[in-house]
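Journal club prep — side note

Before the paper discussion, L.F. wants everyone to see what a predicted structure for a comparable chain looks like in C-alpha cell form. Sequence:
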Amino acid sequence: MTTVTAPKTAPADSTWAIDPVHTSVEFAVKHMMVSTVKGRFRGVEGTLRIDEAKPEASEVSATIDVASVDTGVEMRDADLRSDNFFSADRFPTITFRSTRIERAENAPTWRVTGDLTIRDVTRPVTLEVEFDGRGVDAYGKDRAGFTAETKISRKEFGVKWNQVIEAGGVAVGDTVKITLNVAAVRQD
C-alpha cells in the first residue's frame, strides 16, 4: 500500500521582520523657503504580520531610533536631536502601529493607516504603500519589499521650533515628506 502525503501549503498568516540594513526611512523638509533638506533615520526595527488570504487583516508595527537621524551634517543632526526638534534624550523613539489596511481604489497600492508617535504625541497617519516584490535571497530566506509615502505636519507632533528669516518666511517648513523603502524577512 502506498501512502500519499498532501503537499505542504504556506500558512495564511506569516510574520516578517524589517531588515534594518536594507530599509531606509527618509524625510524631506523645506529650508529657508527655497531649498529642501533630506535626511534619514538609520535605526529602524519592526514587524509585519501578513494575512495572505485577507491582506486587510494584516498588521504593521515599527520603531525608529531618533538618535540615528542623519542629514549628512553633524551640526544639523545634533540640533535635530535637541529639544528644538525631536528631543531624543526625552523621546528616544518614533513609533508606528497600523490600525487599518485597505486596498486603494483602481490601483496596485494599499493604504496603511496607523498611529504615529513623535515626541509622545500620537496622530493618525495614512501611508500609500506599494508592494515591490517577493523572492528568496542567497541564504534561502524569503524576502519582500515595500515602498511607502506620506506627508505630515511637524507642528502637529510638537516639533514647533522655527525662526523668521529677514527676507520673509521661516527657516524650516511645516510639511515633512516621508518615504520608506522597507525590506522584510519572513520569520516563520
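L.F.'s comment for the group: The mean pLDDT is 90. Keep this in mind when we get to the figures.
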